Input
Amino acid sequence: MIRVAQPLDAEFIRALWLRADNRVFLDAPAEGQIEEAIAVGDLLLWLDATEPVGFALIVEWLPRVLGLREFAVSRPGLGRSFLEALMTEVFTRRQAHRLGLDCTADNSRALRFFESAGFQHEGVWRECWQRPGGDWVDCVFMSMLEREWQTRGPWPPLAAPVRSS
Output
């Protein structure tokens, strides 16, 4: 289930945001950023029953043009259902025309994930993000339009794991 994050969710969001495996790909939140995003309803929480297991930060770039600024889940296998619920939230309740995002060009897992959901490549921003260690990396910009979301087919099934004999 997806819902707007509440002040009591800030600790979970901060811990997941700053987790070591996320820091390579997510900007550390600025002082007060989480609380401010919660206050204006831009932070969404993904729940497994009643337990929070992921979050997304949605920002308005222009009227009806939203950006997925941050997206994280606490364990493998949760991303697809969270992204499906997130797109429903964005394109129905928030009535977006477009949802955009960017991810680093070397994050092949995220690129495959968003491509498989139907996001289209729009270009590369050269050296758009500086990692905490100081290296600059390229970012791939992607988006989905409301009409693409409405007419896309089912999300392809996950590939079965390859078993070695």
Remarks:
- The two ends are 39 Å apart (CA to CA).
- Residues 79-93 form the longest helix (15 residues).
